[in-house]
Write a structure and sequence with these properties.
binds adenosine monophosphate; 6-stranded parallel sheet; about 20% strand; alpha/beta; about 290 residues; 3-stranded antiparallel sheet; 9 strands
Length: about 290
């Protein structure tokens, strides 16, 4: 496994990689969620590359950039075991050269949900992902359903800018009690950690309601909000039933929905989601 810092060296390494190449972009502090993406890439591609870069541009000023957990030594040891070809650990100036002023912006699908509460977040994400796609020229890129809007926005950008990359979205990996794995879970105190699975319980309750016939978008949102209200430590920022592709909020009868939420548990902002589909319900009911 080559560990590369400088951009020009990365370009040279990429030229020699067997194709198709699978790329897994991360911000490090790796957990089983990240590793599930790496393993899927390993299964599907003769070469696998991982990037580890805590991207300042996707944090707003009041967010946790300085506190964001980092442990490069541990990350590299974990990746070594996955037998991948290359890890890129760029310095800030490898991604943002002096005088940087070029941004990639996706419009409609970045406005609601995370975009409404984290101004500039997706501009940071899409700019870095576009740069990663240019540099690595991967045939496949792996993202987690955990960040459903990010995956949808990256898919949109990939189609709009004609990147010849297949965007593969992998299922959310959870702790045994349902909490979606996240680097930010380390911020939780023991009491907050105990409260945190309420996100998953709220989503599961709404999904269950959907599968037994609740089709009203408001009804689904109410179901989630009701479960969250039972845990005083959980302070919801938004609770949504949206179109899984456009991310627009749904009203009235729904056949397919991305149920999602952002919830503060203490100072830590957690997100989670699940997709419900009528065709899947029918299979379950049969
Ligand atoms: P991050 O390091 O948070 O930027 O995440 C890097 C990639 O890992 C993103 O595509 C995330 O969606 C994905 N990811 C993070 N947590 C999980 C999880 N629990 N299950 C699956 N994928 C995840």
């Amino acid at each position: 496994m080559k560990v590369v810092e400088k951009l020009d060296e990365l370009r040279r390494v990429c030229e020699d990689l067997a194709r198709p190449l699978g790329l897994v972009p991360t911000m490090g502090f790796l957990h089983e969620g990240h590793l599930s993406l790496v393993r899927r890439a390993r299964e599907e591609c003769p070469s696998v590359a991982v990037s580890i870069f805590v991207n300042p541009a996707q944090f707003s000023p009041q967010e946790d950039l300085a506190a964001y957990p980092r442990d490069l030594g541990r990350d590299l040891a974990l990746l070594e075991r996955e037998e991948i070809e290359v890890v890129w650990t760029p310095r800030l100036e490898d991604v943002y050269p002096p005088g940087f002023q070029t941004w990639v912006t996706v419009e409609g699908s970045t406005r609601p949900l995370e975009g409404a509460h984290r101004p500039g977040h997706f501009r940071g994400v899409t700019t870095v992902v576009a740069k990663l796609f240019h540099t690595f020229q991967p045939q496949k890129a792996y993202f987690g359903q955990k960040d459903a809007q990010q995956a949808a926005v990256v898919r949109r950008m990939t189609a709009d800018l004609d990147f010849a990359v297949e965007v593969v979205v992998c299922p959310t990996v959870r702790e045994p009690d349902g909490l979606a794995m996240s680097s930010r879970n380390v911020y939780l105190t023991p009491e907050q950690r105990q409260a945190a699975p309420v996100l998953h319980r709220a989503l599961a309750a709404a999904a269950e309601a959907f599968h037994v016939g609740e089709r009203d978008a408001d009804g689904l949102r109410r179901r989630m909000a009701g479960v969250l209200a039972g845990v005083p430590l959980a302070r919801p920022q938004y609770v949504s039933a949206a179109d899984p592709d456009t991310l627009e909020e749904l009203h009235g009868r729904v056949e397919r929905a991305l149920l999602s939420m952002a919830v503060f548990v203490g100072e830590t902002r957690l997100i989670d989601n699940v997709v419900v589909e009528e065709s899947m319900s029918r299979r379950v009911e049969e």
